[in-house]
Amino acid sequence: MQLIFWIGASAAALTSLSYLPQVKKAWPPGSTADLSLKMLIILTSGLWLWVIYGLMRSDWMIIAANVIGGSLSLTVLLCKLRDRRAAGASQAAGSSARQAPKAKMSARS
Fold this sequence. Notes:
By secondary structure, the protein is mostly helical. Helices cover 85% and strands 0% of the residues. The longest helix is centred in the last third of the chain and has 49 residues.
């Protein structure tokens, strides 16, 4: 029984903490362009479904591992959404700035 526990605990720790480098990389604004939004949504949803499954089975190892992994994955997803919103806002600002001189020229004519 001891060996099974340590194998499970090690697997849970390694897979859960494997998201830390991605969180570190995604944390600075504008650094998530190469990440797939769909993949992050699917991964985060799947991890939280594992939490629900673990709760239903009363398996704290599954719960703990997936709460950690799900939280870290959610952090990366939120960074991706932040960067998409910022990119959209800067594109909209650039677009209106390009259109403003045209409007001034039309008014002068």
